[in-house]
Write a structure and sequence with these properties.
Helix content is about 40%, strand content about 20%. The strands form two sheets. The chain has a seven-stranded mixed sheet with strand order 3-2-1-4-5-10-11, sandwiched between helices. A four-stranded parallel sheet has the order 7-8-6-9, with helices on both faces. It is α/β, with parallel strands linked by helices. The structure holds adenosine-5'-diphosphate and 6-O-phosphono-beta-D-fructofuranose (F6P). The site of adenosine-5'-diphosphate has 17 residues, from helix 4.
Length: about 325
């Protein structure tokens, strides 16, 4: 018979993402509805080790569903990657009567969650990252808001790019993953999309296409460059020198991580947060919430971390077809 979970903790870890507050709110209210107590752990694993732990009531999450960022703050914590740090974290959970934790974050945060689970603290991960780079799930909290924010910004750059008949390189977030770049590339009708997973560094090809596009009468030339490739400013200088077409670089940066979450992010985050509590209530541990093939499901953390995902080739091909 599974041990009854009486008190659960909730934390956000790694890069923040719009919709994390909706997930925290769902965890708090779903747990209270099941008669559990809730403790908020501030600043991810760093706050756990510092015992920055607060009691949370239903009203602690009032007025948060529409807010970007995370009311629990977030951090990266090297100490927690050590065995000693993890044991200390599990000990602190026991000291505070926390017998289950919901960890909202990315793959790194789930590795930490897996360690806590192995040390006897029931743990459930909820995927929160704007990068969409968690293999077990088709959806991650924050991606929808981030791509909509980036899309709006790129539309604005496009206006001025067309007016001045310039080439624009717009850098979007994604150090290792090109999903934001791919989606913006399709949604903004970019002439080229540079993805960390695909770009071979062949700048001459880009230059040839810009010249060709200009000959075909295109007034602007939008290149979406993922952060993982970077060097947008120097790329712009080289392209301008090679084509004779004025070229500007715009780096969208952290604006993509903030702002009011979209409807989709609020709804999916709420459902995943509530379902994470259901898992804990039914005695489950070491699971990650996911949205896969149209259903909310959960996976074993280690199995989830072993999964891989790549840019869908057909979508990438369509993006190229649309830009010609
Ligand atoms: P994300 O969760 O967005 O992938 P990070 O990779 O920065 O972000 O991980 C967030 C935090 O998770 C790290 O700062 C660290 O505290 C914890 N973490 C990452 N990897 C591990 C690991 N192998 N073991 C334990 N904790 C880890
Ligand atoms: O949240 C994911 C992400 O935005 C990545 O795309 C990016 O590489 C990273 O976070 C940057 O995070 P920070 O600037 O907080 O170190």
């Amino acid at each position: 018979m599974a041990k009854t979970v009486k008190t659960i903790g909730v934390l956000t870890s790694g890069g923040d993402a719009p919709g994390m507050n909706a997930a925290i709110r769902a965890v708090v209210r779903a747990a209270i509805a099941k008669g559990m107590k809730v403790k908020g752990i501030m600043r991810g694993y760093a706050g756990l080790l510092q015992e920055e732990i607060i009691d949370m009531e239903s009203t602690s999450v009032s007025d948060t569903i529409n807010r970007g960022g995370t009311i629990l703050y977030t951090a990266r914590c090297t100490e927690f990657t050590t065995e000693e740090g993890q044991k200390q974290g599990a000990e602190i959970c026991r000291k505070h009567g926390i017998d289950g934790i919901v960890v909202i974050g990315g793959d790194g945060s789930f590795r930490g969650a897996g360690k806590l689970s192995a040390l006897g603290v029931n743990t459930i991960g909820v995927p929160g990252t704007i990068d969409l780079d968690i293999a077990c799930t088709d959806y991650t909290i924050g991606f929808d808001t981030a791509v909509n924010t980036a899309m709006d910004a790129i539309d604005k750059v496009r206006d001025t790019s067309t007016s001045h008949e310039r080439c624009s390189i717009i850098e979007v977030m994604g150090r290792h993953a090109g999903y934001i770049a791919l989606w913006c590339g399709i949604a903004n009708g970019a002439e080229d999309i540079l993805l960390p997973e695909r770009y071979d560094g062949n700048e001459q090809m880009l230059i040839n296409r810009i010249i060709e596009n200009r000959k075909r009468g295109k007034k602007h030339n939008i290149i979406i460059n993922a952060e993982g490739i970077g060097h947008s400013a120097s790329m712009a200088r080289r392209i301008e020198a090679a084509t004779g077409i004025e070229t500007r670089a715009t780096i969208l940066g952290h604006m993509q991580r903030g702002g009011t979450p979209t409807c989709k992010d609020r709804v999916y985050a709420t459902i995943m947060g509530a379902k994470a509590v259901e898992l804990l209530a039914s005695g489950r541990s070491n699971r990650v919430m996911a949205y896969k093939n149209g259903n909310y499901v959960d996976f074993d953390i280690q199995e989830a971390l072993a999964m891989t995902k790549d840019i869908p080739e057909d979508q990438y091909d369509i993006s190229k077809m649309m830009s010609r």
